[in-house]
Design goal:
Aldehyde Dehydrogenase, Chain A, domain 2, Aldehyde Dehydrogenase, Chain A, domain 1, alpha/beta, five-stranded parallel beta sheet, seven-stranded mixed beta sheet, globular, about 375 residues, 2 domains, single chain
Length: about 375
């Protein structure tokens, strides 16, 4: 082809972003939080749809953000806040909105995602939806440290009342005495807990509905949690099912996220049973496994996790998401609508940017970020080499 023309590439903000706050993190995934801050960092104005579970908190947070914006002389209209279902729908439809960030249920997310794509000019929709987050205990790990793993699972699945999107909801445990010991330690840890208060009455109601749907699946047994309490109070629920039943067509309810302190123990007898059960489990935000030293199952589980989730955890629990350069909080459908993006960590900014290349552009017309003299003092890559 011969020498290329002068090509200079950078990323620019998409434009105004709509952010839908979640119910479970009023400060980290709501009016303030990762979606809002990353969109602002990208240079995008933000209009936030407040979650009905905490409207007063949302308004107080928004007022504080407005005061901060005015202190630094940010442009008027940089931030906006709306309330109500109809306002949220109108926000997605509004031609001024260039992208959407959403954290919530599969049903609500899918509806808004379809709406964003049905517009005359479709827009990107970055939705974090449902995730049951498989956790596997290998036979080797169960033999080594059954009590430790079982108690740790109990703490993880009930952290924050089980209202973490990374809660381990599907627990794959081997048959036999060592697997029995894992389950016994888990049951004992759950029975020590008092009833838990959910963040909103609606969350508690949905949790009860989900728990009833799971316990109605033929072949399941309830290990913990006969009493579902009332109002916003719930008790942890633990069910057990054999891997062949879990993998069957009639067990779909077992494989869906139940938001709250509920988990399903899937007992497997062989590696093939485990592989078949994991194969039908939905992709997720996280995939965790506990293995022993030189464990024959560790390699294939790590490889499967890479295909099933955005974050793969070895010998640890998935709850708790660190905000860092290397964090990935996303995954294949139904965990998210965009598996190549993350809603936590430095890479979250990439959702709100698009690349633009300038070809043979006179120096005085180039953005400052692309000029030879680099007046902004930022990293540049020139002919492939970083400067």
């Amino acid at each position: 082809m011969g020498p290329l023309p002068d090509l200079r590439r950078m990323r620019v903000p998409l434009g105004p972003v709509a952010v839908f706050g979640s119910s479970n993190f009023p400060f980290a995934f709501s009016v303030p939080g990762g979606d809002t801050s990353s969109a602002l960092a990208a240079g995008c104005p933000v209009v936030i749809k407040a979650h009905p579970a905490h409207p007063a908190t949302s308004e107080r947070c928004f007022d504080a953000m407005l005061r901060g914006a005015r202190v630094v002389a940010a442009p008027e209209g940089l931030l906006g806040l709306v309330f109500g279902f109809e306002a949220g729908v109108a926000l997605v439809d509004d031609p001024a909105i260039s992208a959407v960030g959403f954290t919530g249920s599969v049903a609500a997310g899918r509806s808004l995602w379809s709406r964003a794509n049905a517009r005359e000019v479709p827009i990107p929709f970055f939705g974090e939806l449902g995730s049951a987050n498989p956790l596997v205990v290998t036979a080797g790990a169960a033999a080594e440290r059954s009590a430790e793993i079982g108690a740790g699972i109990g703490s993880s699945m009930t952290l924050g009342g089980g209202q973490f999107c990374t809660k381990p909801g599907l627990l794959f445990v081997p048959d036999g005495e060592h697997g029995d010991a894992v389950v016994a330690a888990l049951v004992a840890s759950l029975r020590e807990l008092s009833p838990m208060t959910m963040l909103a009455a609606g969350i508690a109601s949905h949790f009860r509905d989900g728990a009833h749907a799971v316990t109605a699946v033929s072949g399941t047994s309830l290990l913990v949690g006969a009493d579902l309490e009332e109002g916003t109070s719930v008790t942890p629920q633990l069910l057990e099912v054999a891997a062949p039943i879990f993998a069957g067509a009639a067990a779909r309810a077992l494989r869906e996220e139940c938001f709250g302190p509920l988990a399903v123990v899937v007992r497997y007898g062989t590696g093939d049973e485990l592989a078949q059960a994991l194969d039908v489990a939905d992709p997720a935000l996280t995939f965790s496994f506990f293995s022993a030293a030189e464990d024959p199952d560790a390699s294939w589980l790590a490889e499967l996790g890479q295909r099933k989730a955005g974050r793969v955890i070895a010998n640890g629990y998935p709850t708790g998401v660190g905000v860092s350069w290397s964090m990935q909080h996303g995954g294949p459908w139904p965990a998210t609508t965009s598996p190549s993006s993350t809603s936590v960590g430095a890479a979250g900014i990439e959702r709100w940017l698009r690349p633009v290349t300038y070809q043979n552009m006179p120096a005085e017309l180039l953005p400052e970020a692309l000029r030879d003299e680099n007046p902004l003092g930022i990293p540049q890559r020139v002919d492939g080499s970083r400067h």
